[in-house]
Design brief:
The chain is mainly α. It has helices at about 20-30, 40-45, 50-60, 70-85, 90-95, 100-120, 135-145, 150-155, 160, 165-180, 185-200, 205-215, 220-230, 260-265, 265-270, 335-345; strands at about 250, 295, 305. The structure holds a DNA duplex.
Length: about 350
DNA sequence: AAAACTATCAACCGCGTAAGT
DNA sequence: CACTTACGCGGTTGATAGTTT
């Protein structure tokens, strides 16, 4: 059964709206309010279909529409929301006052998407793109030491290689390798990036670890990669007793208190989400771990504090990391370069304060 | 100066679905 | 329950402006 046309299109005007048409539409809606779009054009004296009128109103004529360049904060919000919601433009627009879904969609496709691609980040999955990763280097390094990696599980568990969390980790690891001429920076980067990625990867219902273990590509593998890096002298500050927590941990950051335990989400709800760049830092830009940070376990129906100190031998990073890009955050007139610089910190996104994840469910 | 190319974004199209009959 | 209608959404198109060659 074919769908009935929204309106009789014979004789109806298409294309750009004239100021006169806009005026008619605005006047009519001011008097009668929006709605009943099918009847509206006839009543308003417009030779347009209702759909066209609705679109013109919602995307252009509505009085509360904010026009002009997207601010840095808006762009940040879009990226964060897109990592959670995907191409749910209307849902994203609902959280950006004054912006329409069409506008956000256009902006995504013409600006953000391209920038992410340039950064080597897949704009769909928000994970590093495979073709940008020197995975062969990782694999080659690991495979040279058969005690570190079981080849069959590695190959058989190829899905694990496509795990976004692992890819992020791999990307960071490789970037560390490229920077290994600066041990101090390396150590610091490890603290800030690897630790955070390992733990943040476990935040959504321990999804990362579960996937890895199910695919025979265990957390141990990641640890082995880190050990290998350590053996290579890359991670001079990493102790051999480095351990990943096995609890189901959720974020309860001192800053925004977002977490499963207090968000009203079930664990399954959380696990179903795409990687959202939740991380456990107090600073959304640098992602350092405050010493008093506690994770809450929601296992067994009860909340159990999870103490990082008991699982990490590595001291937490300093609160003022090198190369901090925190200066751009307050700039509303951000340049493209600055935004691109910001995207290099893309893995450290944090759900902004006041953003109610529960609304997305 | 003009052609070619690229970026932008308003508008359209078709589909899914809720609501109504 | 089947069907129709209206609405909203996401993908896509195409006109226009801006930039490069």
């Amino acid at each position: 059964m074919g769908r009935a046309p929204c309106c009789d299109k014979n004789g109806l005007k298409k294309g750009p709206w004239t100021p006169e048409e806009d005026l008619k539409l605005v006047n009519y809606i001011q008097k009668h309010g929006p709605g009943n779009w099918r009847a509206l054009p006839k009543n308003a004296g417009l030779q347009r279909c209702g759909k066209s009128c609705r679109l013109r109103w919602t995307n252009y004529l509505r009085p509360d529409i904010k026009r002009g360049r997207f601010s840095f904060e808006e762009e940040e919000t879009i990226i964060q929301l897109h990592s959670i919601l995907g191409n749910k433009w209307s849902a994203i627009a609902a959280r950006l006052p004054g912006r329409t879904d069409n506008e956000i969609k256009n902006y995504w496709n013409t600006h953000i998407r391209k920038r992410l691609l340039r950064m080597g980040i897949d704009p769909v999955t928000h994970a590093p793109r495979l073709d940008f990763l020197d995975l062969s280097s990782i694999l080659g390094s690991s495979l040279c030491n058969p005690t570190l990696v079981n080849l069959s599980t590695l190959l058989g568990g190829s899905q694990a290689l496509f795990n976004p969390d692992f890819l992020r980790l791999a990307a960071t690891l490789m970037s560390l390798k490229q920077e290994n001429n600066n041990p101090d920076l390396l150590t610091q980067n490890f603290n800030e990036n690897i630790n955070n990625q390992l733990f943040s990867a476990q935040l959504p219902n321990n999804q990362f670890q579960t996937q890895l273990s199910q695919q025979g590509f265990s957390t141990e593998m990641v640890k082995q990669l880190l050990m290998q890096a350590n053996a290579d002298g890359l991670l001079s500050n990493m102790g051999t007793n480095f351990e990943c927590p096995t609890n189901t941990a959720t974020t309860t950051t001192p800053q925004n208190n977002i977490g499963i335990a207090n968000s009203g989400l079930s664990e399954n709800d959380f696990a179903s989400q795409q990687p959202s760049y939740l991380h456990c830092g107090s600073n959304p830009l640098v992602g350092d771990l405050p010493e008093n940070l506690h994770f809450q376990s929601v296992n067994d129906g009860g909340k159990k504090d999870f103490d990082f100190d008991s699982t990490l031998s590595t001291p937490l990073s300093s609160p003022t990391p090198l190369n901090s890009s925190s200066t751009y955050i307050n700039s509303s007139s951000t340049t493209e370069d600055e935004k691109e610089s910001y995207c290099s910190d893309f893995f450290k996104f944090e759900i902004p304060e006041g953003l109610d994840i529960n609304e997305f469910m």
